[in-house]
Amino acid sequence: MQDIQVAIELGVDLMKDIVAAGYSFLKEKNRERDFFGAATKKYVGGLLERNSTIKVLTMREPQPLEKLYVRANILKDKITAELGLSAEELEKFHDLDRRTFGKIAETVDGELIVNQLQRFIVLGKPGAGKTTYLRYLTLMMLQPLSQIERRKLPIFVTLREWADKKKPLMDFIVEQFSICGFDEAQPFVERVLTNGDCIVLFDGLDEVSQEANQSGIIQEIKDFSDKYGENQFIISCRVAAYNLWFDRFTDVEMADFNEEQIEKFIKNWFHAEPKVGQECWQKLQNSPQLKELASVPLLLTLLCIVYNRSNNFPPNRANLYEEAIDALLRDWDASRRITRDEVYRQLSINRKKSMFARIAWGTFTENMYFVPERILTKQIEKFIEHLPGFKPEELDVDSHAVLKSIEAQHGIFVERAKKVHSFAHLTFQEYFTAKYIVDNAREGTLETLVNEHLYDDKWKEVFLLVAGMLDSADELFLLMQQKNNELLKVHEINALIVAADKSMLKKNSRYPEVIRRDFAVFIALARAHTYTPFLDFVLAFALDLAFERTFALDLVHADIVRAFDLARTRAFDLALNRALDLTRVLTLFHDPLEGYGKANNLAPKIVLRISDFLKAKILMLNCLEHDAFVSKPVREKILNEMLKPRREGE
Description:
Rossmann fold, 4 domains, five-stranded parallel sheet, three-stranded antiparallel sheet, elongated
């Protein structure tokens, strides 16, 4: 409370000359009423109280905006949707940096842009922080230490509230002054506007529905900004909802959060528990998928809320992604009591999810991340045509309008360049691809997933999500095991497992059999490296497999951890004497794996097959770690038979 009082005093001091000029025509007559002190203090106090805290989604209580706020960045280049890049050109960027869809864009500090532009419209995706940015600018106008050069009296207009009031703009503004405690404000408001001493912030143009006369609202804003043209004007709007209505305004777009901003936000969020904040940031860095979502302030807020529940992110990422998608599809608008226009009312939230899943499956299967508009609208149209009760004569909107509505209201799709679209995040495309597979498992989608994509690195996240989304993942794991064991028909791979099997110590060894087997495979490959020099990356997979299975079977103890550390330290110094030394150090085998490397001079094609074999085993273990529900018999079968050799006749 004391901080608010200090801020009010500072704000009043900054605004006193503007207020004095606004009341100059009443100065002598009303000196005794102390307009310059009491009225200004009430208005500034009202502004601060209404804009100094933030509460979104499931936050338990409001948080101070200035303590949580991370500076907004504005893109220096033109609006993304206006870029003249083709889908093929965007794909080149995507290949370079899959999770951020291309190059790092140059930006300008959002606070400094106020010093450069008299009129501008701030565009951004859903959850990009547009309202928070305007509220922060309101506070900075009243903050002596801000970077804003010319101080103006802030007038904050929530456009949805004005539209609902159905009254002239000037009357609504005067009412806002009255709410803040500034009575009989109309002559004062007209004077300060005439003097050009105000910054008018119009927030949420996209939140004004057609039913609320959006076109009339737009025209009145244009007339108002022309009449009082010496003032500064800022409008916020979702980028997909904007239609170039304001030709005298400069269009700017909010940038996604970069790493520095994400880390700063987490630090601010957990300011009372800095250690927890540091742990949250470290875990986020270890998950490219979650880090990708964190580039959107709303979703980063959700991630912090989720992390705060248990000091961790849930192992089953599918549940977290679903929560993030629901935040965009439903919760964000619902928490602010916003009802948007529905272009096609038969598309319920669940049907939209089904449509997104079908589109994701089709595009991801075709390695298509950037989709030309004509293809995407055709897929939307095809989905709508198959809805129950569909009648062509009742579809009074086209698929293009549906696409624009989805982009504007939910941000699941974004326009990456002119008439080229994609899912807002690769994570969303992967999630909805997995959803399609799970929803259509009876149609053979699990078999298709395993048979066509088990060895494709691009599909790893989809496998993890599918395993976590299935009510029972038994069938998926058995299919993966069956498909992968087909590689044992390759002589060199089966010979590797047989050699490892024969080299293990006797049954009374203090090391569990599965650990000895996994390390034996590693040592066999280490010896083979002497004859096949390009095995380095395969060795890494072998060690990862041993490590992951040790933890999956809860067999970790000090000696085994020490063995892993030694193996990692020496794994890539693979002269023959080192391989033999490693064998002695680990003391896991009664004789070294003689002969495998000599007998199997591995061709590059075979090395790749060994790599696929080991990676698929690691993937199965990763799926188990992601909270997949698997029956006890299947779990034991997968874990204990992972490196079982193929016998004669099998």
